[in-house]
Each structure stands twice: as structure tokens, then as C-alpha cells.
Amino acid sequence: MRADEPMAGTFEVEEVLRVVPPGNLVKGMFFSRHAERLGDDFSAVQPRLADPPTRGRYLAFRDYPQHDYIRVYCALAKKVFPRLGLNEGARRIAREDFDVFAHSVLGRVVVALVRDARAALHKLPSVYDNVAPGDWGVSSRELPSGEVRIQFERLFGPWAYTAGQIEGVVLAFGSTPRVCVEASGDGRVCFDVTLL
Questions:
Q1: pLDDT profile of the chain (196 residues), mean per 10
Q2: What DSSP string runs through the chain?
Q3: What is the pTM of this model?
């Protein structure tokens, strides 16, 4: 799929949450913008969160449950993109993650070390380790065809969101991504990224 091709379909949030390991975490910096954009609608999501923000604010480098993150970004995707399926709404929301990361202290260091989209994609495994600690088993490698394969041994959550994150990285470096996704039922997901 190309970045300009809408993704069809939806997913059931509660079904996704049943398979996401409770130890998977996400830094607060990614929550903050969603909570702000939800505005008053955040109060409907907050009672369902396992670890709600302290005094209504997420702390940028504190870890929060991925379960909570999925609830928050899904609520925002439904609000901002009500006419799109949840897959496409989540994908579009996820494209903004790179910008949030790039403005963090760690992000500025990482971005200064990469020269293009291909190099940035190869940094994704270490970025995940730092900003979304969990049992992902993520790796990257070059394929003989020239694509970059980002592979998750255990991606328990909607892969549409992760596809959007990958697209956001590539777009931020001035390339156009085409992402082919291969998902197995055991959580293994491969994203083969062509830079156009």
C-alpha cells in the first residue's frame, strides 16, 4: 500500500487489548498530544485507563501501559476521522509519532545521526527499545530486492498503527513509502518498505 492509498477495515479495540502483553509500555510523550486533541472527550476514556495521567498530564519520559495508549489513540482516531475505518484512522494518527519523537532529546540525537529514510528505518529497532519497551522482537534488514524489512516477532496490536509509524518516518525524510505487510496469526508481522 502506498501512503496515499486509504486502508480499508476496522478492528475491535477490546479484542486487540486481550492479546497485548501487559508489560508492553509507551512513553508519555506520545500520549500527550492525543489527550490534548481529545479535549473534553478525554474524560470518557480516562476511567478505562489502567494508569491515568498524574494531575491530568502525561510525563514525557514515564512509561505507561500500551493498553492505555491503544484506548487513547483509538478514541482520537474515531473523533478526528469519523468517516474512516479504524485501521485508516489509526494509521493517519500514527504518522505523527515521528515528529513527536524527533522533538524529544533522544529523538534529536538519533535524527542527527541518520542521513535518509533508509538509515532511519534501520534505527527503528533501537527506537522501539527506548520509547516503547516491550517484548517486540523487532529487527530491520535489507532485502535483495532493495526493500527494508522491519520485522516484529511479537506485534500484538493493530499493525495499521505500526504501518503508519513507518510511513511517518519515511515521509519525514522526504521519500514516499510503499509498505507491504505480511502478518501471521502468532504475532509475527513483516513490513517490507519500498522507498519511492
A1: 72 90 94 95 96 89 96 97 94 95 86 90 93 92 96 88 96 95 89 95
A2: -BTTSPPP----HHHHHHHS-TT-EEEHHHHHHHHHHHGGGHHHHGGG-SSPPBTTB--TTSEEEHHHHHHHHHHHHHHH-TTS-HHHHHHHHHTTHHHHHHTSHHHHHHHHH--SHHHHHHHHHHHHHHHS-SS--EEEEE-TTSPEEEEES---S-HHHHHHHHHHHHHHTT--EEEEEEE-TTS-EEEEEEE-
A3: 0.92
